Amino acid sequence: EADIYQTPRYLVIGTGKKITLECSQTMGHDKMYWYQQDPGMELHLIHYSYGVNSTEKGDLSSESTVSRIRTEHFPLTLESARPSHTSQYLCASSEGSAPIVRSQYFGPGTRLTVL
Amino acid sequence: QKEVEQNSGPLSVPEGAIASLNCTYSDRGSQSFFWYRQYSGKSPELIMFIYSNGDKEDGRFTAQLNKASQYVSLLIRDSQPSDSATYLCAVSSNFGNEKLTFGTGTRLTIIP
Fold first, then answer.
1. Which of A2, B57, B60, B92 could be cross-linked to B32 through a Cys-Cys bond (beta carbons 3.0 to 4.6 Å apart)?
2. Pairing of strands A110-114, A10-13
3. Beta carbons of A98 and B103 less than 8 Å apart
4. CB of A100 less than 8 A from some CB of B
């Protein structure tokens, strides 16, 4: 079983607040990812990182930002939360290198509600 | 055309029968293929991965890959009620950037 953690698990917050969703993994994986998923819908990649000091935007435009200062830690920040940010946020990590893409392991997710 | 397509279901299968889930993809150069199971309200859980053409078996699960036809399937033998979930197909990008593209998932219901 993969060791990847997310906090908080649930967050209800008012519009305009700054929030940081935490993601940590203890597997030493270089690659980490953030996905957004609405109920019953597909996963959308919003950010990814291939290692320390490496971050890229994903396929879905997002107003969030990420940082990767340590291998094990990949926090996601929303500077000013809006109701449109209400969603489930999933963090994942993987090892390996192209061309063979290795499995991604997911954390438990953070369900964010912005009022 | 979506990059990864799955029948959204719901797919209903009697307990003990074989459930067959299919996925097609558009990127001919894709190298890695994954099946995830996602229970309602939970995060995706890796079930199988397959890199080469043919079949790969793990317990009650068999993944089948046909790169020429650009499809990958998942068979679940002796289906159990606990197999009821949404199954996500994921395919690697051809660009070597190690991103996965997920299908929308097939909702599977095992009928006792």
1. B92
2. parallel
3. no
4. yes
